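Contributing new complexes? Match this layout with cytidine-5'-monophosphate.
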Amino acid sequence: MSGTMEQETPFDGGGPVIVAIDGPAGSGKSTLARRLAAHFGLGLLDTGLLYRAVAKKLLDAGIDPADEDAATAAAERLAPADLDPACLRGEATGNGASVVAAMPAVRTALLPVQRRLGAEGRGSVVVGRDIGTAIFPDTPCKFFITASIEARARRRHKELLNRGETPIYARVLDELKARDRRDEARSVAPMRVAEDAVVVDTSELDIDQAFGTIRSLMDERLRMSA
Ligand code: C5P
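Output block (do not edit by hand):
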């Protein structure tokens, strides 16, 4: 969790504020969430890190992420020290995360952790796949950030190149498609747009334009819910 105050916020006086930011991998949602959290002086909770941490524990121990008992045990024992983003970025960890994320017992174990962390302090921008539908369904600030599969694959490919890796574009595209399929098809809390979420397509927007769009939509939503 992190958050810095950049300006006066419209939230003073109420309970914790939750801004739900859902969407597929490569949509730009994490970057946007970071900027929103800094702008509004809220914490930031990237819930993907929890699923990644569970997958990483299994991968490090040489256990197949599809092993449901091991994944559930790892989810139940997750500690704050397991959530260091620097150790959880890899593609194998991300793909393993989408495997363990399809397991109902893993999601059940991680649900209260997300609700507790998200509601700490003044509240948080919470990033994931099911924040607006399952974790914080009552928040009035819900956004679903998306982009075309090609735009997302191009971004992910560039990000991996910048990290010094040697990615193959066609493979990045295939892995994103497979991840989308797993996230959309699972029986518990599949990735989908909440009925009352605002959809923002970032295919043709740069980060400043996307941030500006969401910031003004948020002001509007907060005025409506006041
Ligand atoms: O967002 P990130 O790529 O870090 O998430 C990794 C995986 O964790 C996703 O592909 C998804 O399967 C899972 N996840 C989820 N629900 C969330 C956050 C992440 O199922 N709220």
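Reviewers usually confirm one structural detail per submission. For this one: Residues 207-225 form the longest helix (19 residues).
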